[in-house]
Amino acid sequence: MKLNKNGKGSAVYLLLVPLILVIGAIVIDTIINYSQEKKYKVITETIVKDIITQEDISEDEYEATIKKFYERNGYKTENMVVEIKGNGKMYLENEHYYSGILTSIFSKNKNSVERVLFGVRVKLAENSKVFLKINIDYTDKNDIKFEYIK
């Protein structure tokens, strides 16, 4: 079967448009991931600095207060780890999940996108996670240092 000029153009159009849309969604998901990670770090630093610099909160109350402030900002704290090591040092660990564009478009349960391509199950996307591990040095309350652990 021979395609005419219009048939070839339609075939190219039908192949390129979905490909461009998927590439665009991947780029936007990458940008969303970066912005979510940056936002999470800024919120964490703000919460910790606010709590440490308040005179009426003792070290014993840091963990409960940090969790309360995270929850007020819409973040879950059930897996949060806050260790007060003493001598002006603290360890904080928490994770935050969010869904990207590919997940929210293609998945009903918003957890992951899996499709069968050429007989093979492929995971196209899943909920992304921002995971922070931070050593915090607040020996000088005017100069709080955050060391992010990869």
Short summary:
This protein has 150 residues and is α+β, with helices and mostly antiparallel strands.
Question: What structural keywords apply?
Answer:
single chain, 150 residues, alpha+beta, four-stranded antiparallel sheet, two-stranded antiparallel sheet, 3 helices, 6 strands, 29% strand
Number of domains: 1
Mean pLDDT: 76
Helix % is 40-55%
Report how far the terminal alpha carbons are from each other.
57 Å
What is the number of helical segments per DSSP (H or I, 4+ residues)? Answer: 3
Mass-distribution shape: elongated
Which stretches are poorly predicted, pLDDT < 50 over at least 5 residues?
110-114
Structural class: alpha+beta
| Oligomer designation | single chain
Radius of gyration: 23 Å
| Percent strand | 25-35%
How do the helices and strands follow one another from N- to C-terminus?
A: HHEEHEEEE
Word description of this protein:
This protein is of the alpha+beta class and 150 residues long. The chain has one domain. The protein contains 3 helices and 6 strands; from the N terminus they run H-H-E-E-H-E-E-E-E. It has helices spanning 5-53, 62-72, 101-106, and strands spanning 81-86, 89-98, 112-117, 120-126, 128-137, 145-148. The strands form 2 sheets. Strands 1-2-5-6 form a 4-stranded antiparallel beta sheet, with helices on one face. Helix 1 (5-53) packs antiparallel against helix 2. It is elongated and about 75 Å long.
